[in-house]
Design brief:
By secondary structure, the chain is of the alpha+beta class. It has nine helices and six strands; from the N terminus they run ααββββααβααβααα. Helix 1 packs antiparallel against helix 4. It is globular.
Length: about 220
C-alpha cells in the first residue's frame, strides 16, 4: 500500500469522536473490569507475593490524543536485572523492525517467569481497561507510544510529520489494526502509521467489532510476547 506523506487533510471518521462510542466503551470497559476482577485480583496477589519490593501496577507516560501524555497502566512483568534470578527467564531479544517495539526489553530489565506467562495471554494489559474507563484510551485504536519513539520516527522519517498529526487525532487503543496483524513484526514504521491512519479514516462500529473478535482469537491463542 502506498504511503501518501503529503496529504494532511485526509477525512477522519466521525466514529473516532462519537459520544455514543465513548459511552459504549466506558460501559463495556466497566463490565469487563467486573467480569475479569477475579483474574485481576489474582494476578495482583501473585505479583506481590513473587516480587514484594515492586509495585503491582507499572505506570508509564504514553502519548494520547493530540500527543497529550497520560499514565498508561500495565501489570508489572519486568524487574531489575541485578535481582536474584529464580523467577526470571533469559532476556528476550525483541529486535523488531519497528521503533514502536524496540523498548519492550531493555538491557537493565528482565521479564519474570510469571510476567512472561501473563504477557503470552495479554493479561498484563488488563489494567488499561481503567485507561479506557477514564477516557485516556479507546478499546480500539493506534497503540499508545512513548514520546521518544515518536521523536525517533520524526527524526528518521521527517516526511511522515503530517501523517503523525492524523494518527494522533484519535485516542490510542487497547487493541487495534497493528496489534492483530499476523505480520506486525515485519512491518516498517511507515507501514504501521499507514495502517493506523487507514483505521482512523474508516473506523466504524462493525470495524471495531471485527478487530475485537480478532483480538479475542489472539488472546485465546496465546500469541502475546
Amino acid at each position: 500500500m502506498g504511503l501518501n506523506t503529503k496529504n494532511k487533510d485526509l477525512p477522519i471518521s466521525p466514529w473516532n469522536t462519537s459520544k455514543f462510542r465513548r459511552i459504549l466503551e466506558a460501559v463495556f470497559a466497566g463490565f469487563l473490569i467486573l467480569l475479569l476482577s477475579p483474574i485481576i485480583i489474582l494476578v495482583g496477589i501473585i505479583n506481590k507475593v513473587l516480587h514484594p519490593k515492586y509495585p503491582i501496577i507499572y505506570k508509564q507516560a504514553r502519548l494520547g490524543k493530540d500527543e497529550e501524555p497520560f499514565e498508561c497502566y500495565k501489570f508489572r512483568t519486568m524487574i531489575d536485572n541485578h535481582n536474584n534470578g529464580k523467577q526470571m527467564v533469559p532476556e528476550t531479544q525483541l529486535e523488531f523492525a519497528s521503533v514502536f517495539e524496540k523498548s519492550k526489553v531493555t538491557n537493565c530489565k528482565k521479564i519474570t517467569r510469571f510476567g512472561a506467562l501473563i504477557r503470552k495471554y495479554y493479561i498484563d494489559e488488563l489494567p488499561q481497561l481503567y485507561n479506557v474507563l477514564k477516557g485516556d484510551m479507546s478499546l480500539i485504536g493506534p497503540r499508545p507510544n512513548l514520546k521518544y519513539q515518536i521523536d525517533d520516527i520524526r527524526e528518521s522519517h521527517p516526511e511522515c510529520e503530517n501523517l503523525l498529526k492524523i494518527r494522533y487525532s484519535a485516542k490510542p487503543g487497547l487493541t487495534g489494526p497493528w496489534q492483530v496483524a499476523p505480520d506486525k513484526f515485519e512491518l516498517s514504521d511507515k507501514e504501521i502509521i499507514q495502517r493506523d491512519i487507514e483505521y482512523i479514516r474508516k473506523a466504524k462500529l462493525s470495524t471495531d467489532l471485527e478487530l475485537t473478535w480478532m483480538t479475542i482469537l489472539k488472546v485465546l491463542g496465546g500469541a502475546g510476547q
